[in-house]
Amino acid sequence: MIQILLASHGLLAEALKETAEYVLGKKDNIHTLCAYKDESSMDLDSLADCWTNRMKEEGGWVVLTDAFGGSVNHAFMNRLSKGGFYLMAGMNLPLLMELAVCEARPDEDGMERILADARDSIKCFIRIEETIQDDEF
After folding, report:
1. CB-based burial of residue 118 (10 Å sphere; 0-12 exposed, 13-18 middle, 19+ buried)?
2. Are 111 and 86 in contact (CB under 8 A)?
3. pLDDT tens across 66-112, in order?
4. Rounded Cα gap, residues 33 and 53, in angstroms
């Protein structure tokens, strides 16, 4: 089964995992790295090295980070050349839930489809002019 590392600033990764497991049930393939939450999580380079070394040995990993260009995302971007994982920024619940049920790490086309589905789940509702029917959802 695909292995997923949720990596974030603070406790976002743990909260997202907890929410996904509320919907999907306990998932042993979701792991978390919460940077900067306490003294033991301040050395992001060391934490990223530990995880990427494990990923290189096992293969089949996807790392979801909270924000593109942030320090957590940057730490894993610097380690992409080690191999063993895909990296995606902008984690959200629909993306995580779709990945969490994958039997194996998708190929690049599969990852693009999953990413497109996650993007499509993001909607903005400013004002509703007319009643939306249940069958439109």
Report:
1. buried
2. yes
3. 999 999 999 999 999 988 899 999 999 999 999 999 888 888 899 99
4. 14
Cα distances (angstroms) measured from residue 116 to each of 18, 87, 120: 24, 15, 6
Q: Is the dihedral of CA 50, 52, 53, 57 positive or negative?
A: positive
Closest alpha carbon to 63 in 85, 96, 48? 85
14: burial class by Cβ within 10 Å (0-12, 13-18, 19+)?
middle
Instruction: Output DSSP code: residue 82.
Output: G
* DSSP state string for 28-53: TTEEEEEETSSGGGS-HHHHHHHHHH
Output the pTM of the full model. Answer: 0.87
